[in-house]
Design brief:
The protein has 218 residues and is an alpha/beta fold. It contains 7 helices and 11 strands. A 6-stranded parallel β-sheet has the order 3-2-1-4-5-6, with helices on both faces. It has a 5-stranded antiparallel β-sheet with strand order 7-8-11-9-10, covered by helices on one side.
Length: 218
Amino acid sequence: MNIVIMGGGKLGRQLALNMLERKNTVQIIEKDRLRSLRLANELDLEVISGNGTELKILEEARTSEADCFLAVSGSDQDNLVACQLAKQTFGVKKVIARANDPRNLTALRVLGIDIVVSSTEIITNMIEQEVNVSEMHLLTTLNRGRAAIVAMTLTDHSTINGTKLRDVQLPKGSLIVSVLRDGQMIIPNGDLVFSSGDEIVAVCEGKSQKDLNRILSR
């Protein structure tokens, strides 16, 4: 893939490193000239020194050829403008913006950014899910934190032991996707009978995670 990253700070630098390791083509836009020179020397890639909210700088970065445009500068306003230009003027299909202030998340999403990332929101969601659902383990979040993949091991005292999946009333917005039993992964159907020691992996949306935890742990 061809990736353009606006913002050469710690996040932009690490993203560039990760993308280069995966054999992607990367261009960085950074307004600070000294930082631009340092990045170019450290990463051995093309770094455009300038403001990523200006058309001529975006053109110089060959934004029209990009498969993905990431705006991760320290300014939410600049990230928004750069992403809008990349999408509307240069036709980039996927634009991703960093929200430094979590209060700007909704506005950025409403204004057409495909993916808005906030480290504050991600960490908060992970803490809340771990604290509120102590018996379950969070594996990853989905849909910008609105859903999660979780895992839980059935104890000897679980009331669903010996019960078929079809007979368990799962909460709305949840789905059991796999069961690990004696080292073997099972893709469950309605006839699967739960047993103590089963490690269950489920997808949960919204508040269904708490309800699923209650059903599996009682």
